[in-house]
Specification:
heterodimer, A: elongated, B: mainly alpha, 20 helices
Chain lengths: ~230, ~550
């Protein structure tokens, strides 16, 4: 926990130039198959339909993805999620789903980082590709944001600002261009080095969150910071 | 003709000035915050403003489509009123009602303008009350009256003296005897061939687009995947899926636009050719107009096909630019020039007629299509217009009824009983059912016009009387029943589910009846082409 906090603070300090002035979290991405399935599981659990929730999980793409990435996800996550769904443990379910989302976010961010360093691509092209991958990461992160922030507010803030800054250093922006500040703001000068540093920081924070959250979930302590209803 | 020219020009301006229109509308809406009940914070208002701008653009788009559609309806209906409605009072009344319905497309311009000035709900209500409902009702009344008059002629043999000449729409001054007036004149066979070929290709394109959608999508996706750099693919499935979907939708939209414009411009081409043959007396101007109309009109819809075809190979923006500069803009300008220029001799003829002086144009008279075809087309037109009205006026009630039907069949629609999960499923069903009803309205109107135009062409340009009769019968039956497939689909979606209802409509309605209409139009085109070739071979000196 302390290390996560430390990383968040370091990230804050490291990026306190133009990017830090940006707005955070306006962009709402479209669902893909994974987020759609994840929301269905969540809705069924919220509606008090454990059998349906487990069925949606077992037959859905979230389960397929988890099985494919079994070795890279925290041990026992799949069984723990199924058990939490069965016993209608809402905080336990939410926390485990957040771990899956954090993992997917981290994967997309790592891909984005790798793309920035692809020598075979022109600079504009690799920045454009990295921006798209960061947008894909945001699609998953914004569904985990509540749980991550509830577990540790500073981690959540650091990650959100990280998204904004990574986009900015890659010559893009997170917000809808109709938003007044965005409409008036000039795009910042791209800086791949700073973008890489920001993404590295985010990847570290997410890895830490996953480890902490897995430990909390196994201990059955998710209810300490997540609402039961 | 004025409506056709305005509708076509509206469409062109809308495409060219889209960014400016969007910007102007957004600024006006942001400036009139209270009218549009905005919060004053741009990041919260952005979505609301986008939605209002979208509605304004929809109004302009409806002006384009209804301007052209209503122009054609007026032209053919007015000619049929002049030919079929015998009592002078009835004829005059129907012509007046048809004249009033010309305001209907203008109502959509007002719709867009009123939204800007009075806010969305109030603006739409105002446009509906002041223009759309009165003008739309007037069109429905006129067409229903005309259908009644034609039906009466059909069942009462004593009254049936028509059939020899299709008359212009001008109400007669001194003669109630239809045969004393000049009829529409036959345009050249080549121009008619261009029109009917375009309609046949557009119908074929529409049918292929629906039948082979999966294959077309998979071809597009494969070509796009072969060019990842061009399309900005990144190699991550979740990112690329979104990009691929966008490209597929844009390529599909191009095909849809080819189908729509092919059919619409084909009809416009035939209608304008009739007008040129009847009202333009100067031979040189007549040939210039024929040439511009035929080349511009025939080539224009292929621009959308070119755009769709180029998208997977050159990217969306490059394909759009290439299609615009190589096909759409030059042919569109030619078509617009022809339409607007045609208004000059028409205006002159109108003034001359008011002074009592008429200029004779050479050419043989056009006979109307078989009465049964006319009645079928008019009934279809009335039902399609009523369908369009019902669809808008009772949307909420229709949606409520469909929702109840769907919710009563959870197994069919895969509903699980959780509102948040079932909601999107039901919404998708309602949206498809609404779309199918829209397609009934669109295809009903389009097919009714194709029936009338195709019937006129078959009766006047196909030499074999037996074949002409058969083609008209196929058009009457196929054209009349085909659009009801969309109505049936719309009604069946909440009951049977999306795919089973589509399969049923396809097997029992679209393929047999749409096929009959398509075969009739295609055979007409082939016969026309054959006769044109024979004529050219027989007398090479003829124009």
């Amino acid at each position: 926990m302390r290390r996560a906090l430390g990383s968040a603070l370091i990230l804050f300090v490291a990026i306190s130039d133009p990017a830090a002035a940006h707005h955070v979290g306006v962009f709402i991405p479209k669902d893909d198959d994974i987020t759609r399935n994840l929301k269905e599981i969540r809705y069924a659990a919220e509606a008090g339909r454990p059998v349906l929730a487990v069925k949606l999980f077992d037959e859905g793409i979230v389960h397929t993805t988890m099985e494919k990435e079994e070795k890279r996800l925290p041990r026992g996550l799949e069984d723990g999620l199924r058990a939490a769904l069965h016993r209608q443990d809402r905080p336990g379910t939410e926390l485990r789903l957040a771990i899956v989302l954090a993992f997917l976010t981290r994967e997309r961010l790592s891909n984005a980082r790798a793309r920035i360093h692809r020598p075979d691509l022109r600079p504009e092209r690799r920045r454009e590709q990295a921006r798209k991958l960061i947008n894909a990461a945001w699609r998953y992160y914004n569904l985990a944001d509540f749980v991550i922030t509830a577990q540790d507010a500073r981690t959540g803030v650091a990650l959100r600002i990280g998204f904004e800054d990574a986009q900015t250093y890659l010559g893009g922006m997170m917000v809808d261009p109709m938003w007044a500040a965005a409409a008036n703001a000039k795009p910042a000068e791209p800086d791949e080095g700073k973008a890489t540093a920001v993404i590295d920081g985010m990847v570290r924070i997410l890895a830490r969150f996953m480890a902490d959250a897995a430990r909390i979930a196994r201990a059955g302590q998710a209810g300490r910071f997540l609402p039961r209803r | 003709m004025l409506l056709l020219a305005l509708g076509a020009t509206g469409g062109a301006l809308m495409s060219v000035l889209q960014p400016q229109i969007r910007q102007y509308a957004s600024e006006r809406i942001f400036a009139a915050r209270e009218v549009h009940t905005l919060s004053g914070s741009r990041d919260y208002d952005a979505d609301v403003v986008n939605e209002i701008v979208f509605t304004i653009e929809a109004g302009l788009s409806f002006f384009h489509t209804h301007g052209e559609g209503m122009g054609l309806v007026l032209l053919f209906a007015a000619a049929l009123v002049a030919s079929l409605a015998r009592p002078r009072m009835l004829r005059g009344g129907l012509q007046w009602l048809l004249g009033l319905s010309a305001l209907f497309p203008v109502g959509y311009l007002a719709y867009s303008a009123f939204i800007l000035v009075y806010g969305r709900d109030r603006g739409i209500a105002l446009a509906e009350r002041m223009l759309l409902i009165p003008a739309g009702s007037s069109a429905i009344l006129a067409l229903a009256g005309l259908a009644g008059a034609a039906g009466l002629l059909l069942v009462n043999r004593r009254l049936r003296r028509t059939g020899e000449m299709l008359l212009p729409s001008t109400p007669p001054t001194d003669a109630d005897n239809a045969d004393d007036r000049d009829g529409w004149k036959r345009p050249p066979r080549a121009v008619v061939l261009a029109a009917v070929l375009l309609i046949a290709l557009a119908e074929l394109g529409g049918a292929a687009m629906g039948r082979f959608k999966a294959e077309i999508d998979s071809f597009t996706s494969a070509r796009v995947r072969e060019r990842p750099d061009l399309h900005g693919l990144v190699g991550s499935p979740d990112v690329d899926a979104e990009i691929l979907e966008e490209i597929r939708v844009k390529a599909d939209a191009g095909l849809r636009l080819f189908h729509l414009h092919g059919e619409g411009v084909g009809l416009m081409l035939f209608a304008a050719a009739l007008v040129i043959a009847t009202y333009v007396s100067a031979p040189r101007l007549r040939w210039v107009l024929y040439a511009a109309l035929t080349v511009g009109g025939f080539v224009f819809p292929f621009g959308y096909l070119v755009r769709s075809g180029l998208i997977p190979f050159r990217g969306v923006d490059a394909a759009r630019t290439a299609a615009a500069f190589s096909v759409l803009v030059p042919s569109g300008i030619l078509l617009l020039l022809a339409l607007w220029t045609l208004l000059l001799p028409l205006g002159r003829a109108l003034l001359a007629r008011r002074r009592g002086a008429t200029e004779e144009t050479a050419g043989s008279a056009v006979r109307p299509p078989l009465l049964v075809l006319v009645v079928a087309a008019l009934v279809l037109l009335v039902l399609a217009e009523v369908g369009g009205g019902v669809m808008t006026a009772f949307k909420v009630d229709l949606d409520r009824a469909r929702r109840a039907q769907a919710e009563a069949r959870p197994l069919i629609h895969g509903l699980v009983g959780v509102r948040q999960i079932d909601g999107p499923v039901i919404d998708a069903l309602l949206s498809r059912a609404d779309f199918a009803l829209r397609l009934f309205h669109l295809h009903g109107e389009g097919m009714a016009l194709v029936m009338v135009a195709g019937g006129i062409i078959a009766r006047n340009f196909v030499s074999s009387r037996a074949l002409a009769g058969l083609l008209q019968a196929m058009l009457a039956v196929g054209g009349f029943l085909y659009p009801f497939g969309y109505l049936a689909w719309s009604l069946m979606i909440p009951v049977l589910g999306l795919q089973p209802s589509r399969d049923l409509a396809e097997v029992f309605v679209w393929v047999p009846f749409g096929g009959a209409a398509l075969v009739a139009i295609s055979v007409t085109a082939l016969v026309l082409a054959g006769e044109l070739l024979l004529a050219a071979g027989a007398s090479p000196g003829d124009p």
